[in-house]
């Protein structure tokens, strides 16, 4: 089985040694060559990276990469299996704890897709969280587009937005034919949204609008397709500073 897991990065970093992992320099156009696969070769949207984030890497893979199974990780964030912590010889080397080819093949025998374990926002819905953190008009316009282009998805869109749990990071592993189907659906919506919204006054963070929106849409697509998902832990290669994250979350919630 030919498996390729994209490792989205914008800088030089320690990468997994196993050849199923393909580091991809997202936003490569006009930038220094890091020695990784660039998302600016072939048909691409590399120049849109400041708005689309890791999705420029997904678009490149959709249009240019051939394989049986495809996935996405980030240079600091990978899927892991807790059982690996028990057998790893060097637990300080977190690269030893990420999923390998054998792990992925075993999981996909009984699942359509590998996804991160859901985050639970507990005190707010996915919709209200977006409203507190971003420009809600963009999410509302996304709903309008789905109602126009994919009305059969509208019920599950509302179900995701009214819920409190969500798969984040745009991370996954699935068969390439499913991935191709997902990308066609996703980019049809996002390109239409790009035509309708004015982000000229957004700061650098809010300008990542299409990356933020896609995280929500990914959950809608999975639900609509009745996909058999296997939720897997995500390991961060670097330590996470949780206190600033919690403080910022509370500020957004009660501002």
Characterise the protein shown here.
There is one protein chain. The chain is of the alpha/beta class. The chain has a single domain, classed as Spore Coat Polysaccharide Biosynthesis Protein SpsA, Chain A. Helices cover 43% and strands 17% of the residues. It is built from ten helices and ten strands. The strands form two sheets. Strands 3-2-1-4-9-6-10-5 form an eight-stranded mixed β-sheet, sandwiched between helices. The chain is globular. The model has no long low-confidence stretch (mean pLDDT 93).
Summary keywords:
single chain, 255 residues, alpha/beta, Spore Coat Polysaccharide Biosynthesis Protein SpsA, Chain A, 8-stranded mixed beta sheet, two-stranded antiparallel sheet, 10 helices, 43% helix
Please give the structural blueprint:
Elements: E1 3-9, E2 21-25, E3 37-38, H1 49-52, H2 55-64, E4 69-74, E5 77-80, H3 82-87, H4 101-108, E6 113-116, E7 119-120, H5 126-133, H6 136-149, H7 154-162, E8 165-166, E9 172-175, H8 176-196, H9 209-224, E10 229-236, H10 242-254
Parallel strand pairs: 1-2, 1-4, 2-3, 6-10
Antiparallel strand pairs: 4-9, 5-10, 6-9, 7-8
């Amino acid at each position: 089985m030919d498996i390729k897991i994209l490792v989205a990065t914008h800088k030089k970093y320690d990468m997994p040694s196993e050849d199923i992992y393909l580091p991809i320099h997202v936003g490569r156009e006009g930038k220094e060559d890091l020695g990784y696969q660039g998302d600016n070769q072939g048909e691409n949207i590399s120049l849109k990276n400041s708005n689309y984030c890791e999705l420029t890497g997904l678009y490149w893979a959709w249009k240019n990469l051939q394989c049986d199974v495809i996935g996405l990780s980030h240079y600091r964030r990978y899927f892991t299996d807790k059982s690996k912590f028990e057998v790893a010889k060097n637990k300080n080397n977190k690269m030893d704890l990420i999923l390998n080819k054998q792990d992925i093949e075993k999981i996909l025998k009984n699942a359509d897709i590998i996804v991160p374990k859901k985050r639970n926002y507990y005190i707010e819905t996915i919709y209200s969280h977006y409203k507190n953190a971003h420009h809600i008009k963009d999410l509302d316009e996304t709903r309008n587009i789905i109602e126009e282009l994919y009305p059969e998805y509208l019920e599950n869109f509302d179900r995701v937005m009214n819920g409190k749990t969500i798969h984040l990071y745009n991370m996954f592993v699935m068969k390439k034919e499913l991935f191709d189907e997902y990308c066609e659906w996703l980019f049809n919506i996002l390109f239409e949204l790009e035509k309708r919204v004015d982000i000229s006054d957004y700061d650098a963070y809010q300008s990542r609008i299409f990356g933020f929106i896609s995280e929500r849409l990914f959950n809608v697509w999975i639900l609509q397709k009745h996909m058999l998902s296997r939720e897997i832990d995500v390991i961060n290669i670097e330590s996470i500073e949780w206190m600033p994250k919690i403080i910022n979350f509370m500020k957004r919630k009660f501002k």
